[in-house]
Design brief:
158 residues, single chain, six-stranded antiparallel β-sheet, alpha+beta, elongated
């Protein structure tokens, strides 16, 4: 594989990782969460007490896809629960009903261009450094020459 091809493949992998992982929770200031969106709700003390038997007493935030909403509350397909001590539990889409009175703040998961660019630059820089180091370690020769390619091979003494 040539350095150029290795760089391109690495860049594509870094870009894919950046695009897949650069989301953040943004507060919904005065707006109502929309059905079908990925949302999170801070749970107040009343909610912790009432939901303790269902999701655990140490819950501070619940995140998932909003499946349904009405005047009384929300139904979430839960993907994660954040705990008071800082831990997190991953869920597999189990549905939980939240009454509006249990919810403090609401957030929506949104794409973050700033984080994406930052992660992409860091990833691309890391890959470039790897390729440069790899090139230095192999003396500038292609470590994976194609059959019949003699341009980048060195001939040593027998």
């Amino acid at each position: 594989m040539s350095e150029t091809l290795l760089l391109r493949v690495g860049f594509i992998v870094a870009l894919g990782a950046a695009l897949a992982s650069c989301y953040s929770l943004s507060p919904l200031r005065g707006a109502e969460p929309q059905v079908g969106r990925q949302v999170a709700f801070d749970i107040n003390d009343t909610g912790r007490v009432v939901l303790g038997g269902t999701v655990g007493p140490q819950i501070t935030q619940i995140e998932g896809q909003l499946v349904e909403k009405d005047s009384a509350g929300y139904v979430l397909a839960v993907s994660a629960i954040r705990l008071i001590g800082g831990g997190q539990q991953v869920w597999a889409g189990e549905r939980v009903r939240l009454e509006s009175r249990f919810v403090g703040s609401a957030y929506e998961r949104r794409f973050s261009p700033t984080r994406t660019i930052g992660l992409g630059v860091i990833g691309a820089g890391g890959i470039a450094a790897f390729v440069a180091g790899f090139s230095w370690a192999t003396g500038g020769n292609d470590p994976f020459p194609m059959p019949g390619d003699t341009a980048n091979t060195s001939v040593g003494r027998p």
